[in-house]
Specification:
With 826 residues, this protein is an alpha/beta fold. It contains 23 helices and 27 strands. The chain has an eight-stranded parallel β-sheet with strand order 8-5-9-4-13-16-1-17. The relative contact order is 0.10. The mean pLDDT is 87.
């Protein structure tokens, strides 16, 4: 009942927000009435979503379910469904059920004492790309708003702890400490365009009202950042003066996530590499020991709260003390969206670190039965999933919907022939033989933009999907070239088309440049959210047609007031591989793919960003480079290739237990597990300056390594790899103990990394970029731990002197003595 209620509210709220994003003039009541007019179709389950959820309820209700916790039966549930089919709603429904069942079950017993399920992280959702994380964060926040309102209406059933959602990503995307967020807010209020990463949502997910820095408040006493809806009339419950005093239930500062343990955490897979360096992150897995009545769960490393004394009353806040607490129940559900992106070097690193994640999220019943988290993955393009899942999670895989004889009809999905009623998506291949690719890009872009304007003049809003051209490129270098062409050649051509072309001029380009956006890795994360929000703006027939332009010109001549608008929709959006997942903008219908993407999965995912609305067909134009044999081969087999799309998807490879992967990742694996599992102990290994306590906790860490070995053996299914990992763990544990002994002999204390305070401390770990080439010196930290799972080798900085004489100041030893004959002048 709770799941159905909050999912219904989430779907309605998301559509209200979408309506107000596409038409800013709509009031909240008008948007709600527009959604209500859709009837039951506004919020209803699809059969495959219900079936998938029902299949998982047993495992989520009974933590000891064999499908979740048994060594030989535990599986990863893989939701394999086409893009735009509704996978997100399926696993958000599972998340809502997980919130409810944990609150109802309350405190559960384990071999290590009671675990409180009324608080703590219930669901971990992980992505690989920050764009995907930002887009899904908006949708998941609407779910948490619905859950929080449901909790407030019945606190006796759902408890007093608020439902919150946390965004746990890199420091370039969101702040790490409260001071960073506070400084950002001060600068944003002084200089309006300042980058504000603490604000990750551009609109209220509940009502669609825009949110500006003015709606973000930093409270230094609570060390909290509050985000409110921008509704000035307080009609939204999450606005200032609304019924929810905290505002929107979002946490985007790392330290807040550690202290307040939100029920739902959305993270990038890279962030888990920080477990070895941030002892406070242990709270995400329920390993807490003390709680401050003002600040939440506090770790000894946390400097924002003095955990030895009480806080006096100040700024309207009552006096507060810290007190010991029991452990929280670890996450019950782990969601991995877009599984096909976990491959290659990144997949190898993730697969090895997954050993630590599952170990930290597991516990035992008093009767000895193990409890492991449920794992759900989803993708629309995958091949060889059994081997990939075994390498990543050490479990078998169950694919849903199940594979059947006729792929065109699985009962839950059916291929519908393209017709006028069901237009689908059309792919058109273009190969301009003998013409430079740049010239072909200019001509094709010109035709697509001008043809879109022609349709818009004739059909008005029905042609809106073809007014925004999405350009997809394989490399940023190619995209940058196209950006220059758009600002020059293309803009000139669409503004003044040839008379014999039959195309009208593009009004949007009449008074300046084309409105162009970009979705690439070089764009700041704070700008990506704004770009996605603006991408939802539709073209207005009363403003963007040539007839409307002529009417405005006539009014201007007559001295009448001419209508203006605050923000124009995008004419062109340029993107690289970042676009292929997570962009769900229903109005997009036109794409130009320049060059054949590197693999078929990327091509399917990227081209599926257009034509997502079943009533508005999508058009994908693939412009191949005739000088590239691969592009030409795909063009020659264009029809067959597209008719057998999913059969062409390449198999994925992950090798987390190869010798090189183990050598590179085993240090971080051991340190992360030890610091998290001992976080609730007063004299444990978790605090930054307690690395030396390995001499007292050696036996306890040996038990941790046994758990890690067991998990590796289950996933590797290779005796040699399992033995290699076991030997490495034993070796690293011995080196840790030796390092402690060496530090004591030098009169120093072993810490993890932050030495500071002169020469009193000796570090245990070091990042690859700081590691010396020759390892073995007395000051060289023995454990090399990467800051990110994408760091596959150290980076080398090349410094070039600006003084020409120094570039060749010294000839290498043994260099030949060149005697070149002097040239003769003509």
């Amino acid at each position: 009942q709770f799941m159905n209620q909050v999912m219904r509210d989430q779907r309605v709220a998301s559509q209200v927000a979408a309506e107000r994003a596409s038409d800013p003039s709509l009031s909240i009541q008008a948007a709600q009435a527009k959604v209500a007019a859709k009837g039951d179709t506004a919020a209803s389950w699809r059969p495959f979503q219900l079936a998938f959820i029902l299949m998982q309820l047993g495992a989520l209700t009974d933590p000891t379910s064999p499908l979740r916790s048994a060594d030989h039966l535990a599986c990863v549930e893989l939701l394999f469904f086409p893009t735009g089919g509704g996978k997100t709603e399926a696993y958000l429904g599972l998340a809502a059920y997980t919130f409810a069942i944990r609150r109802r079950q309350g405190v559960v017993e384990s071999t290590e004492g009671p675990l409180d399920g009324r608080d703590g992280v219930a669901v971990l959702m992980r992505y690989t790309l920050r764009l995907l994380t930002a887009q899904q964060f908006q949708r998941a926040t609407a779910l948490m708003c619905a859950a929080e309102l449901a909790r407030r209406s019945d606190e006796n059933t759902w408890g007093s702890e608020p439902f919150r959602i946390g965004l746990w990503v890199g420091t370039d995307v969101s702040p790490k400490r409260f001071e960073e967020a506070d400084e950002q807010l001060i600068r944003a209020n002084e200089y309006g365009a300042h980058r504000l990463t603490v604000l990750q949502i551009q609109r209220c997910p509940w009502c669609g009202t825009p949110i500006t820095p003015a709606q973000v408040r930093a409270d230094a006493t609570l060390r909290r950042v509050f985000v409110y809806c921008g509704d000035e009339l307080s009609q939204c419950p999450f606005a200032k003066g609304g019924t929810v005093l905290e505002g929107l239930p979002v946490l985007t500062v790392d330290e807040e996530i550690y202290r307040l343990t939100p029920a739902f955490v959305i993270a990038t897979v890279d962030k888990f590499a920080r477990l070895a360096r941030e002892g406070e992150a242990a709270a995400l897995f329920g390993y807490v020991g003390r709680r401050c009545a003002r600040h939440g769960y506090v770790h000894p490393d946390y400097g924002g709260c003095n955990i030895t004394t009480a806080h006096p009353a100040t700024n309207g806040q009552p006096a507060a003390t810290t007190y010991p607490v029991g452990r929280l129940r670890p996450p019950d559900l782990i969601i991995q969206d877009e599984l096909h992106l976990i491959t290659g070097a990144l997949g190898t690193s993730v697969g090895l670190f997954e050993v630590a994640v599952e170990t930290l999220a597991s516990w035992q019943r008093p009767d000895g039965k193990p409890v492991r988290p449920s794992i759900v993955a989803s993708t629309a393009t995958v091949r060889n999933a059994h081997e990939q899942v075994r390498g990543l999670y050490g479990r078998r895989v169950e694919i849903f919907p199940p594979q059947v004889l006729d792929v065109a009809d699985t009962f839950f999905s059916e291929e519908i022939p393209v017709s006028q009623k069901n237009p689908g998506r059309r792919y058109v291949g273009v190969s301009a033989q003998g013409v430079r690719l740049a010239s072909a890009e200019i001509r094709v872009s010109e035709v697509l933009l001008s043809a879109g304007q022609l349709l818009f003049d004739r059909c008005h809003s029905d042609a809106d999907p073809y007014m925004t051209l999405v350009g997809y490129f394989n490399a940023t270098r190619e995209l940058a070239g196209m950006a220059r062409y758009l600002a020059d050649d293309v803009q000139t051509r669409v503004r003044r088309p040839r008379k014999d072309s039959g195309f009208p001029p593009r009004p949007g380009a009449a008074f300046g440049m084309l409105h162009t956006g970009e979705l690439t890795s070089r764009i700041a994360s704070s700008e990506i959210g704004k770009t996605l929000d603006r991408l939802g703006l539709e073209f207005d027939p009363a403003y963007d047609t040539n007839a409307a332009l002529q009417a405005r010109i006539a009014d201007q001549k007559d001295g009448k007031k001419v209508a203006t608008r605050n923000e124009a929709p995008f004419d062109v959006i340029l993107a690289t591989s970042m676009l292929q997942v997570g962009v769900d903008v229903q109005r997009l219908g036109l794409m130009l793919v320049v060059g054949q993407p590197k693999n078929t999965a990327e091509y399917i995912q990227a081209s599926s960003r257009v034509g997502r609305d079943a009533t508005k067909p999508g058009l994908v134009v693939t412009l191949g480079n005739w000088a590239r044999p691969r592009d030409l081969a795909h063009f020659e087999q264009f029809r067959h290739y597209h008719e057998t799309f999913y059969a062409q998807v390449e198999a994925l490879s992950v090798t987390p237990y190869s010798p090189t992967a183990l050598d590179r990742g085993i240090d971080g694996l051991l340190v992360s597990a030890a610091r998290v599992i001992q976080a609730h102990l007063i004299d444990g290994l978790s605090p930054e300056r307690n690395a030396w306590r390995i001499k007292h906790q050696h036996k306890a860490v040996e038990l941790i390594t046994e758990r890690l070995k067991k998990r590796i053996a289950a996933a590797a299914q290779d005796d040699d790899a399992a033995k290699r990992a076991s030997d490495l763990l034993i070796n690293r544990l011995d080196r840790w103990a030796d390092r402690t002994k060496h530090a004591a002999e030098m009169g120093k204390t072993l810490v993890y990394e932050r030495t500071g305070e002169g020469d009193r401390h000796l570090p245990l770990i070091i990042s690859p970029e700081n590691a010396k080439a020759s390892i073995g010196g007395s000051t060289q930290a023995p454990f090399v731990v990467a800051n990110s799972m994408r760091e596959v080798q150290p980076e080398i900085n090349v410094l070039v002197s600006p003084i020409p004489e120094r570039l060749f100041a010294r000839a290498p030893e043994g260099a030949p003595a060149w005697n070149l004959p002097a040239g003769t002048e003509d």
